[in-house]
Amino acid sequence: MDAARPEGHTERFSNAEPADHTRASACDDFAGQACSSEQAGAAVHASSADLVRFSVAVPEDLLTAFDKQTARRGTGANRSEAIRDLMRAALVKDELRTPTAQVIGSLTMIYDHHTGDLTRQLDEIQHDYTAEIVSTMHVHLDHHNCLEILAVRGQGARVYELADKLLGLRGVHHGELTCAATGASLER
């Protein structure tokens, strides 16, 4: 760790990032202009597009694997953008469970329709959530197993409640709820 920048140190920069993200220091080249630590620290603006630099200590093999994954994305994403994406995803995931959050998403289930009265239970629960279920698709995978995909929309708490009830039924082998928030809070 750089002795000049203690753990937890943050610096602010306006819409610029170092060209080399591997071992960047406070005085690296920002947008083609070298800067001193004083200049970098003074580059604080009121704009919401300001960037804050902070340090994170991770094992080298984790960083290498993360950089390879970021490169595979092929969208020109750099390490900073990948970390911003992870931060946004964590914030959205947390926001989705709040009672007032409006969410959209899909609930995917694979189940054995021969298990007891599972089909009746699935139908009964789904009929209790008609306001949240926009559409369903049912696919017969084989003689026993079915894939069901529900398009869902509504309050996060209700959508997660629906998912918990359906995925908790005996005979549901696998299931996953994937949601996104519909609000402007994603524009970070």
UniProtKB/TrEMBL annotation:
Binding site for Ni(2+): 127, 138, 140, 146
CDD domains xrefs: RHH_NikR_HicB-like
Comment on bound cofactor: Binds 1 nickel ion per subunit.
Domain Transcription factor NikR nickel binding C-terminal: 104-179
Residues spanning the membrane: none
Domain Ribbon-helix-helix protein CopG intervals: 52-92
The entry's keywords: DNA-binding, Metal-binding, Nickel, Transcription, Transcription regulation
Region described as Disordered: 1-21
GO molecular function: DNA binding; DNA-binding transcription factor activity; nickel cation binding
UniProt cofactor(s): Ni(2+)
UniProt record, GO biological process: response to nickel cation
Protein function: Transcriptional regulator.
Family as reported in the entry's similarity comment: Belongs to the transcriptional regulatory CopG/NikR family.
Name of the protein in its database record: Putative nickel-responsive regulator
Organism, as annotated: Enorma massiliensis
